[in-house]
């Protein structure tokens, strides 16, 4: 029987560089109750079963585990972002059917394959430009130089946010991503900064939506803001704002992590780097293997709407349930040699983009960004070498990725 505090070890930043041995211990009991009453689900089969189970809710999120002070106003300030999200601005990732499905349908109508494929060329030129800016240097910080700026620029392009506002968007995205961690371990000043970022981006979006209604362009926000026709209503303003913010937050740090984890993994497996350089067609399968082996999203939380019996355990109604996707990806009962990075793997059914009704809407876009970036990095960086292994990690346990990734190079190919 594993220890009922193992999940707190997952949250501990000291284990960020290698959480996989803890996941192995957790898998000994597929659904394990933690001392705080949360249930951690860690095998591939159990995660899969629960991802498709309507008795798990994304809407009625469990209360924060931050100790309450007894002063309601102070408690609200201690966990402001969650409260705001839970009331007026709750985006579709935190909603259940039928509201979730209605909102998702609006997004899917605009997030077409045609629109996403149309971004391919733009992603390519952004990547080339970002790599070119490193010319003349013998060190590259992958996060700062490429992984971080790329996804924001792409989301701004997709939504139709003017290029001049991108730096501001980058700041908002960084601040808001901290609110996605279950137990944000940052100080009060940072929590206030999150509220401020949320208010600022909301008011910016409100104005931008108004402009898009007056002067529609061929972008996603103009499409979403289009007035509805009879029998075909449009999205309300609040939902529109929260959807735009969600696309920014959900599509930013995740993509940063995929590109950074990808390059880190390739530098740790130089043979795979060489093979990708020689044959860029290997990229799609390599990206799928990355999403299994080093996924950007390690877990997501749900709440049980009723008693759920699974793998010999009953999750009681109201309990928080943590779906530990990254542990499922290393489950030896599902994948042979799960701790081996093996891009030629067949039947690679990972949870990198989740599954079921909340399956990532940005998956095709994220795949394009990661493919273009990794192929270009392998081709253009001459003799790349990791400067520190493991690199320093950001503190987040759910959206897990290196804070920086120093790479020594001896030049840049054209
Ligand atoms: C490598 C990059 C990405 C990864 C690993 C990733 C991962 C995920 C995962 C695991 C979920 C499921 C959440 C859950 O079950 O609660 C999700 C949902 C979502 N993702 Fe992504 N994502 C990525 C990129 C993007 C991009 C680029 C966008 C948009 C521009 C995006 C937008 C969304 C949205 C809107 C949802 C919520 C869908 C729903 O609730 O129906 N993601 N993503």
Automatic annotation (TrEMBL):
Protein family: Belongs to the cytochrome P450 family.
Protein name, as recorded: Cytochrome P450
Lineage: Bacteria, Pseudomonadati, Pseudomonadota, Alphaproteobacteria, Hyphomicrobiales
Cofactor(s), by name: heme
Pfam family name, one: p450
Protein keywords: Heme, Iron, Metal-binding, Monooxygenase, Oxidoreductase
Cited function: Cytochromes P450 are a group of heme-thiolate monooxygenases. They oxidize a variety of structurally unrelated compounds, including steroids, fatty acids, and xenobiotics.
One MF term in the entry's GO annotations: iron ion binding
């Amino acid at each position: 029987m594993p220890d009922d505090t193992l999940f707190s070890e997952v949250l501990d930043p000291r284990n960020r560089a290698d959480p996989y041995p803890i996941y192995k211990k957790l898998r000994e009991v597929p659904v394990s109750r933690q001392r705080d009453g949360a249930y951690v689900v860690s095998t591939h089969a159990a995660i899969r079963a629960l991802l498709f189970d309507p008795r798990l809710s994304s809407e009625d999120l469990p209360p924060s585990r931050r100790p309450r002070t007894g002063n309601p106003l102070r408690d609200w300030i201690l966990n402001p972002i969650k409260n705001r999200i839970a009331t007026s601005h709750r985006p579709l990732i935190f909603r259940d059917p039928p509201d979730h499905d209605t909102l998702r349908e609006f997004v899917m109508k605009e997030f077409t394959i045609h629109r996403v494929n149309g971004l391919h060329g733009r992603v390519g030129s952004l990547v080339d430009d970002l790599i070119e800016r490193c010319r003349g240097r013998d060190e590259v910080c992958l996060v700062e130089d490429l992984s971080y700026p790329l996804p924001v620029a792409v989301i701004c392009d997709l939504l139709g946010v003017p290029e001049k506002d991108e730096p501001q968007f980058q700041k908002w995205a960084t601040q808001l991503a901290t609110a996605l961690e279950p137990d944000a371990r940052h100080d009060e000043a940072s929590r206030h900064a999150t509220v401020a970022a949320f208010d600022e981006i909301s008011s910016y979006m409100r104005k931008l939506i108004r402009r898009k209604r007056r002067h529609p362009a061929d972008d996603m926000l103009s499409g979403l803001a289009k007035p509805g026709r009879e029998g075909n209503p449009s999205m309300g303003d609040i939902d529109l704002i929260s959807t735009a913010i969600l696309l920014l937050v959900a599509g930013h740090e995740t993509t940063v992590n995929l590109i950074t984890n990808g390059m880190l993994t390739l530098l740790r497996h130089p043979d795979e780097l060489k093979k990708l350089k020689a044959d860029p067609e290997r990229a799609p399968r390599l990206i799928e293997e990355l999403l299994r082996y080093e996924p950007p999203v390690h877990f997501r939380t749900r709440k049980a709407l009723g008693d759920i019996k699974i793998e010999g355990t009953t999750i009681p109604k109201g309990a928080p349930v943590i779906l530990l996707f990254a542990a499922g990806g290393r489950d030896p009962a599902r994948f042979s040699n799960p701790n081996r990075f093996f891009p030629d793997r067949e039947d690679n059914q990972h949870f990198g983009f989740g599954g079921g009704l909340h399956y990532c809407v940005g998956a095709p876009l994220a795949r394009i960004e990661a493919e273009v970036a990794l192929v270009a990095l392998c081709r253009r960086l001459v003799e790349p070498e990791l400067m520190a292994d493991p690199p320093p990690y950001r503190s987040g346990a759910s959206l897990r990725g290196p804070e920086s990734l120093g790479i020594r190079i001896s030049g840049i190919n054209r």
